[in-house]
Design goal:
It comes from Amblyomma americanum. InterPro entries: Calycin. Keywords: Signal. With 286 residues, the chain is an alpha+beta fold. It folds into three domains: 28-180, Lipocalin (Beta Barrel); 187-211, no CATH class; 212-270, no CATH class. The chain has helices at 2-21, 28-40, 160-170, 184-189, 198-211, 260-270; strands at 46-51, 63-65, 67-71, 74-81, 94-102, 108-114, 126-132, 136-140, 151-155, 174-175, 217-218, 234-236, 238-241, 246-248, 251-252. The strands form three sheets. An eight-stranded antiparallel β-barrel has the order 1-2-4-5-6-7-8-9. A three-stranded antiparallel beta sheet has the order 11-12-15. It has a two-stranded antiparallel sheet with strand order 13-14.
């Protein structure tokens, strides 16, 4: 009996010694801190991808942040609304920010704005809820794990994994429709507009970008009342970019029978003698 107890004791001590030799696993908060720091210091555009419904009226739906340089405990980045917003007080936000990541427990992130005054909620600590390397960061307004605080999700592109984590840690979320946010290329190509031209600004930028693409554009759809006024097959090829738009060809790529004069007009005025194809394929950009 005593011998059996001795063997058990030796096994317990042995397992204990083996356990102490294993390297201690890093706590999740440390991993989240390091991943967050890595993402904000990366020379990539970060976009707002998801947020809690209760802060809908307090935050613009289209936000983008560009990297400037590395700083102690964080980074210096830009913060800009890349869509004209009408329902927020920060409708013309375009500024530089300093992001500080605090390693305390719980870890949190704080933003300092340069040259602009914003509501206090924008400068309050944002607690690190989750960070996935090369994908996303989830920030919450409270460190409390027992309830779902208002949160925001930042990242490069939408991923199912990050969205699921948001719901798990913060509850229901509103997903940002990035098609309603202008991209970097469009912003560079389009001149600045005043705040009064709200909806037309975005349409202008997208149309300008399409007209300047080197891809082939084709007529895909038109109103029935225009059926006798426009050829059903039109094609346009890019020539060169101009100050206010682009120079492109425009030709009928099918022999029209309903309005011969109209066909001849397009052939002589726009085609410069180019041949007309007998087959029309329905595609917008190829």
């Amino acid at each position: 009996m005593q011998r059996g107890m001795l063997i058990v004791a030796i096994l317990i001590v042995g397992f204990g010694l083996c356990a102490t030799k294993r390297p201690p696993e890093k706590p999740k908060s440390t991993k989240t801190y390091k991943r967050t720091l890595e993402m904000i210091r990366k020379d990539e555009d970060l976009r707002l991808l998801m947020f809690s419904p209760q802060i809908t009226k307090k935050i613009p739906s289209c936000l983008i942040s560009k990297y400037i340089k590395r700083k102690n405990k964080g980074a210096r980045r830009t913060l800009k609304i890349n869509k004209i917003e009408t329902g927020t007080k920060v409708s013309q936000l375009e500024t530089t920010i300093r992001i500080y990541v605090n390693k305390s427990s719980p870890a949190y992130l704080r933003v300092k704005f340069e040259g602009v005054s914003l509501p206090a909620s924008w400068t309050e600590p944002q607690y690190l809820k989750y960070a996935k390397r090369k994908q996303c960061i989830i920030l919450g307004s409270s460190p409390d794990k027992g309830r779902h605080p208002p949160c925001v999700l930042w990242g490069y592109n939408h991923t199912i994994k990050c969205q699921k984590k948001f719901v798990e840690k913060c509850g229901k979320g509103a997903v940002v429709d990035l098609t309603k946010c202008t991209n970097t290329k469009e912003e560079k190509e389009a001149p600045p507009f005043s705040a009064e031209k709200l909806n037309s600004t975005q349409l202008y930028m997208r149309a300008l970008n399409m007209m300047r693409t080197k891809d082939t554009l084709r007529l895909l759809m038109f109103s029935p009342k225009m059926a006798k006024k426009i050829p059903s097959c039109l094609i346009s090829k890019f020539l060169k970019r101009t100050k206010e738009g682009a120079r492109r060809t425009l030709k009928i790529n099918k022999i029209e029978t309903g309005d011969r004069k109209f066909s001849e007009f397009f052939t002589s005025r726009f085609l410069d003698g180019a041949a007309i194809s007998e087959i029309c394929e329905a595609w917008a950009v190829h």
